TrEMBL record:
This is ATP-binding cassette domain-containing protein. It comes from Desulfobotulus pelophilus. SMART domains: AAA. Gene3D superfamilies: P-loop containing nucleotide triphosphate hydrolases (3.40.50.300). Keywords: ATP-binding, Nucleotide-binding. The keyword Kinase does not apply. The keyword ATP-binding applies. Pfam families: ABC_tran (PF00005). One of its GO terms (molecular function) is ATP binding. Residues 10-236 form the ABC transporter domain. PROSITE patterns: ABC_TRANSPORTER_1, ABC_TRANSPORTER_2.
């Protein structure tokens, strides 16, 4: 039985994921409380991206139970998928912005899909772009922005609908240290506004700075977190 006194936003119970003959996750069980910061770490191929994909139902678990914000993912059908996705903001290493839409329109898309009124969309998008320090780039198209700016747009898009859960897959891996720092700051800001953060990363600096809990995956299973020493820090 789930312990609801902890206000869990994510619960995975004995989750397996296979891609054909490849076992990406092998019996993962974990709990994440609302308001937590959790880092998913582990070597390449350990299953970090797969775990995140299962949480927003981009992939289906082969076995096991996943609950996200009270929704049992094996029970929700295509009609309820938009409701799940509205509760989650996703950030990718390669930004995944739409090149042919302005910064404003990239961020507005989430609110348009949720049926918000144009006036409210304008207000919310500009507010989030201001927080991200890219308000003056609102009418610019993504290809003319730096990587750091593009990731700040991607973070803005992820948070504009005030999701309860933000999933980030290596959000600083393709950024220079200064841009990575800005993205970390931004994630910290939105955590301060109440979002739960689940971040797959190799960036030890982010882990020590944001002071989250670490869940380390090894070969698709939950292992023991590394004993981190600052001297061995990987930048990104
Ligand atoms: N779509 C797919 N089809 C087949 N195999 C896949 C697919 N996606 C992932 N895998 C395999 O599943 C395993 C876990 O991959 P995953 O991308 O989740 O690892 P990761 O920890 O995120 O790795 P990295 O740090 O390199 O991004 C790997 O063996 C990978 O090759």
């Amino acid at each position: 039985m789930a312990d609801f006194s902890k206000n869990l936003i994510v619960r995975m119970f004995d989750v397996y994921k296979a891609y054909g003959k490849t076992s990406a996750l092998k019996g993962v069980s974990l709990e994440i409380a609302a308001g937590d910061i959790v880092f998913i770490t582990g070597p390449s191929g350990a299953g970090k991206s797969t775990l995140l994909k299962l949480l927003y139902k981009a992939e289906l678990a082969s076995q096991g139970q996943i609950l996200v914000d009270g929704l049992n993912l094996s029970r929700i059908g295509a009609r309820q998928l938009p409701e799940l996705r509205r509760r989650i903001g996703v950030i990718f290493q390669d930004f995944k912005l739409i090149a042919g839409r302005s910064v404003f329109d990239n961020v507005a898309l989430v609110l348009e899909a949720a049926g918000e009124k144009p006036k409210m969309i304008e207000k919310k998008v500009m507010s989030v772009l201001r927080t991200a320090g890219i308000e003056e780039k609102a009418r610019v198209f993504p290809p003319s922005l730096s990587g750091g700016e593009q990731q700040r747009v991607a973070v803005s898009r992820a948070v504009v609908g005030s999701p309860r859960l933000i999933l980030a897959d290596e959000p600083t891996a393709s950024l220079d240290p200064q841009s990575a720092e800005q993205v970390m700051q931004l994630l910290e800001t939105f955590h301060g506004k109440g979002a739960t953060l689940v971040i797959a990363t190799h960036n030890r600096r982010m882990i020590s700075r944001l002071k989250g809990r670490e869940i380390r995956l090894e070969g698709g299973a939950v292992g023991v977190p590394e004993d981190f020493s600052g001297e061995k820090a990987e930048e990104c």
